[in-house]
Amino acid sequence: MYGFKLRYVKKSVLLLAALIALILAWSDLSHAFFTLITVLAAILVGGGWLARNALAQTRGDDSRSARVATRPRRERTSRPRRERTSKAQARARRAEELHPEETVTLSQEREAADIDDVFAALDNQLVGLVPVKSKVEEIASLLLVDRVRNRFGLQAPRPNLHMCFTGDPGTGKTTVALQMADLLSRLGYLEKGHLVHAMRDDLVGEFIGQTAPKTRRILERSMGGVLFIDEAYYLYRGDDSRDYGQECIDILLQVMENDRDKLVVILAGYKDRMDGFFESNPGMSSRIAHHLDFAPYKLDELVAIGRAMLDRSSYYLSAEAEVAFRDYLTLRMAQPRFANARSVRNELERSRLRHAHRLAAEPERSRTKDDLMRLEAVDILASPLFALAEEPVGAVGEAAPRR
Fold it and tell me: From CA 22, how far away is CA 132, in angstroms rounded?
């Protein structure tokens, strides 16, 4: 700040001295000679100013040239145009195409797609369900053959793979949907292969203007994967004129038709209710290409499911415990709200709880590894279901009115 002020003080002093010199010259010299001296001084001052500016400009150009010379030269890389990209992709596709005289085996293509472990997971996680597994195998075969056809340059429309899973709770619908998403991704039908699980509350709003944003939000999350709508018949409530489920259905119909190359929609629920849903919404029925029915499990299948669940948790049933478990399932299957594999899982978790409590009741006793893995009959027979089954019919009937 002080340098700034000093600079202007110097200029002021110089101007003041020049003014005093002019006044003295005007008073002492003749007017003609004074005018000549003033013109010459002005010419000298102007010429000096111009020369100074020219020198400064020359130095600036030299310094810029030096900076440009020392600056590392950047390689010019032009961003590839879409045209070039598409041509490169086309060349790559042509390179992958097989000659009409060449041959290929589906086993090689299946190995390249790495889908065998998907079917292995289905077999390990699901007991029975032979018709369902056969349908999944058919869909995989179709997509596998399409992959080979594309290598020969044979084009066909993408198949419609929207599906409907019907069956009782706990019959493996969600498990198959998860594996289906993985399978479709490996075969190139879906980009990501993730699964988004949704129900009515996730899609339908309670007030005007809420349904469309909620539905579109779920659809955006599902793009590239599978949208699994459980209990889909609850989307439509024909007896309620103020219900907004129809708006959700209309959006789903549009996306299922226009964006079927970007996602797969799977509707799930009880068979009879899904039939009624399709009767009320024929547009939705026409967009579902595959119907898979999940039959209830039989007793032997439920026992096998229980063994597999325990094996994954490093438990097993003793011989007496397996007999007790069969008796439990026989009684439970006749009860309301039986949920197949879910009911099996729930009872086994309760049996593990009883097993742990039984061992903890004798903390000083030494335990082996096998003791920690083995469930005994007492862990199963402690279920309240056995006590209810032993009650006389008359006693149950007399107790009911007092509730």
Answer: 113
> Which of 148, 196, 155, 207 is CA-nearest to residue 174?
196
Residue written as token pair 């129809």:
246
- Give residues with Cβ within 8 angstroms of 278, minimum separation 6: 284, 285, 288
Divide the 403 residues of the chain into consecutive groups of 10 and give the mean pLDDT of each group. 54 70 68 68 70 63 51 43 41 56 80 87 87 93 89 86 94 93 92 93 89 94 95 86 86 92 94 92 91 94 94 95 95 91 94 96 94 96 86 45 38
Q: Write down the pTM of the prediction.
A: 0.68
Cβ neighbours of residue 203 closer than 8 Å, sequence gap 6 or more: 211, 214, 215, 218, 229, 235, 248
Q: In angstroms, rounded to a whole number, what is the distance separating the alpha carbons of residues 101 and 124?
A: 40
Task: For residue 320, give the nearest of 377, 247, 252, 397 by alpha carbon.
Answer: 377
| Cα–Cα distance for residue pair 165/230, rounded to 1 Å | 9
CA-based nearest residue to 225, from 271, 164, 183, 274: 183
Tell me the pairing of strands 163-167 and 374-375: unpaired
Question: Which residues pair with residue 265 across a beta bridge?
Answer: 227
Supply the DSSP symbol for 163: E
Structure tokens at 80: 């590839």
User: Are the C-beta atoms of 186 and 114 separated by less than 8 Å?
Assistant: yes
**Order of strands, sheet of 264-269, starting from the edge strand that comes earlier in the sequence:** 195-198, 226-230, 264-269, 163-167, 290-294
